Amino acid sequence: MTDSLSIFQRLRRTPYQAVASVFMMFITLFVMGLFLLLVTSTSSLVSYFESKPQLTVFFSNEKDKTSIDKLVNKLMTTGKISSTKYVSKEEALNIYREQNKDDPLLLEMVTADILPASLDISATAPQYLNEIYQMVKGEEGVDDIVFQKEVVDTIISWATTVRRIGLIFILLLILSTFFILLTSIGMKIAMKKEEIEVLKLVGATNWYIKKPFVYEGIFYGFIGATLAWLFCTFIIYYLKPYATSFLKGVGTLSLFSYQGISIDVWPPNTMLILIIWFILLCSGLSIGLIGSLFASSRYLKE
Amino acid sequence: MILFESVTKKYGPRITAVNEVNFKVGDGEFIFLIGPSGAGKTTVLRLLNREIMPTVGSVFIDDWEVNKLPKSKLPYLRRKVGFIFQDFKLLPDRTVGENIGVALEILNRSRQEINKRIGEVLDIVHLEDKLNYFPRQLSLGEQQRVAIGRAIAGNTSVILADEPTGNLDPKTSWEILKIINDINKEGKTVIMASHNVDIVNSMKKRVIVMKKGKIIKDEKRSRYL
């Protein structure tokens, strides 16, 4: 109750309440950590795809370079194209080799002949994409057109879903944690009712009486956040090999980069791990602080 | 200076615990409040540290009108007024030193100052060798001495004692009274509610006699019976 008793002594006297509070805090922050990772990953992935050419046109073997150049000129006259990049069969093979350099079996089976030449097209504005698509579709020797917008739209769609479900889930968990903290601290205050009365009679301020409970809430937040961070870090490194094969060909996905300091979502760097720890810690401490302040104010009516 | 001006305290419409009480206590005085159970002695003490509010009238301690103090100032009033209870009201899971230290911790004193003052207070209440004992390991008299220690440890200028010898045998009661008397000699004002006629008579201090909530006698160097 008083400063002469350490927080550990106080926790030792009510271990089950302490464990319940820390566990709830951990679950909430762990889910929050996973949600954070998902949101940042999907956002980075969306940005990545948005930065790529919006249309990729694959040509049949019959289509020669001259007719492709004609197509490019025709497209450029519309004024709706910002850039184009021709990828020959040989270049496509090089890209393929680079992407599959760790898998010799796949390299052996592929030659430049079986890879199509392609043209990456970027529009000056997304609303022109459909028009360009229609123009290119009617051309002879066009095998396939990959519309990056569809990929981006799909990612955005499930990113939005993840965000919504995650937010609702986290709000519910924060609410549960808040109530568990409220009950746990409320019970402690009830148990110490006489002691609190004595402290008031000897001239203790309300803050002096509240302080140990608030410290306790903050302590729960700290432990919960640290455990959640450790588990999140474990999950990141555990899933990394699986994600590597899934994100093959995708380069570095940076969330933020300034003067040599960057937060990379993929491959996850130390800065990302530290930022997650910082966010979880701030969240844990805030939930602990607000929850315990609310509980102590409610139960220690001034 | 303590002043009661036409103070009445009612509990509901029928029970009048204190009725039109007027008295004044000078700095450094020692006063016995005596009377049968239900006379209003404890109510007077509780009005002084604002555990309860008067229904009518005003209570003053120095420049403070106790009943008009904002709640935020209440802790400061109680740091000025040390209370010794009949049932001691010690913190059971704190040692003797920690119980006394509470009164200093709330004043934000440094650990070094607190330890020094605890040592001084233990000397005054003759518990030098009981620093690390818990209340349950002490006799009733020793527990009351810890409570006295807590009451005087801070900046108290007034000591209110509600039947401090009520639970004690005669010999221990005298020891406690001697300590309280010594505290008074150092300049602290003492108001002590008591049933113990022998003590009241032998101390020859000012006695306020209460009956049914009213003061029926207020005499200096009085013999009650």
TrEMBL record, chain A:
<comment type="similarity">
    <text>Belongs to the ABC-4 integral membrane protein family. FtsX subfamily.</text>
</comment>
<keyword id="KW-1003">Cell membrane</keyword>
<feature type="domain" description="ABC3 transporter permease C-terminal">
    <location>
        <begin position="168"/>
        <end position="292"/>
    </location>
</feature>
<keyword id="KW-0472">Membrane</keyword>
<dbReference type="InterPro" id="IPR040690">
    <property type="entry name" value="FtsX_ECD"/>
</dbReference>
<keyword id="KW-1133">Transmembrane helix</keyword>
<feature type="transmembrane region" description="Helical">
    <location>
        <begin position="165"/>
        <end position="185"/>
    </location>
</feature>
<keyword id="KW-0812">Transmembrane</keyword>
<dbReference type="GO" id="GO:0051301">
    <property type="term" value="P:cell division"/>
</dbReference>
<keyword id="KW-0132">Cell division</keyword>
<feature type="transmembrane region" description="Helical">
    <location>
        <begin position="246"/>
        <end position="266"/>
    </location>
</feature>
<dbReference type="GO" id="GO:0005886">
    <property type="term" value="C:plasma membrane"/>
</dbReference>
<feature type="transmembrane region" description="Helical">
    <location>
        <begin position="218"/>
        <end position="239"/>
    </location>
</feature>
<feature type="domain" description="FtsX extracellular">
    <location>
        <begin position="54"/>
        <end position="145"/>
    </location>
</feature>
<protein>
    <recommendedName>
        <fullName>Cell division protein FtsX</fullName>
    </recommendedName>
</protein>
<dbReference type="Pfam" id="PF18075">
    <property type="entry name" value="FtsX_ECD"/>
</dbReference>
<feature type="transmembrane region" description="Helical">
    <location>
        <begin position="20"/>
        <end position="39"/>
    </location>
</feature>
<feature type="transmembrane region" description="Helical">
    <location>
        <begin position="272"/>
        <end position="295"/>
    </location>
</feature>
<dbReference type="Pfam" id="PF02687">
    <property type="entry name" value="FtsX"/>
</dbReference>
<keyword id="KW-0131">Cell cycle</keyword>
<dbReference type="InterPro" id="IPR004513">
    <property type="entry name" value="FtsX"/>
</dbReference>
<dbReference type="InterPro" id="IPR003838">
    <property type="entry name" value="ABC3_permease_C"/>
</dbReference>
TrEMBL record, chain B:
<dbReference type="InterPro" id="IPR015854">
    <property type="entry name" value="ABC_transpr_LolD-like"/>
</dbReference>
<dbReference type="InterPro" id="IPR027417">
    <property type="entry name" value="P-loop_NTPase"/>
</dbReference>
<dbReference type="InterPro" id="IPR003439">
    <property type="entry name" value="ABC_transporter-like_ATP-bd"/>
</dbReference>
<keyword id="KW-0547">Nucleotide-binding</keyword>
<protein>
    <submittedName>
        <fullName>Cell division ATP-binding protein FtsE</fullName>
    </submittedName>
</protein>
<dbReference type="InterPro" id="IPR017871">
    <property type="entry name" value="ABC_transporter-like_CS"/>
</dbReference>
<dbReference type="GO" id="GO:0016887">
    <property type="term" value="F:ATP hydrolysis activity"/>
</dbReference>
<dbReference type="GO" id="GO:0022857">
    <property type="term" value="F:transmembrane transporter activity"/>
</dbReference>
<dbReference type="GO" id="GO:0051301">
    <property type="term" value="P:cell division"/>
</dbReference>
<keyword id="KW-0131">Cell cycle</keyword>
<keyword id="KW-0067">ATP-binding</keyword>
<comment type="similarity">
    <text>Belongs to the ABC transporter superfamily.</text>
</comment>
<feature type="domain" description="ABC transporter">
    <location>
        <begin position="2"/>
        <end position="225"/>
    </location>
</feature>
<dbReference type="InterPro" id="IPR003593">
    <property type="entry name" value="AAA+_ATPase"/>
</dbReference>
<keyword id="KW-0132">Cell division</keyword>
<dbReference type="GO" id="GO:0005886">
    <property type="term" value="C:plasma membrane"/>
</dbReference>
<dbReference type="Pfam" id="PF00005">
    <property type="entry name" value="ABC_tran"/>
</dbReference>
<dbReference type="GO" id="GO:0005524">
    <property type="term" value="F:ATP binding"/>
</dbReference>
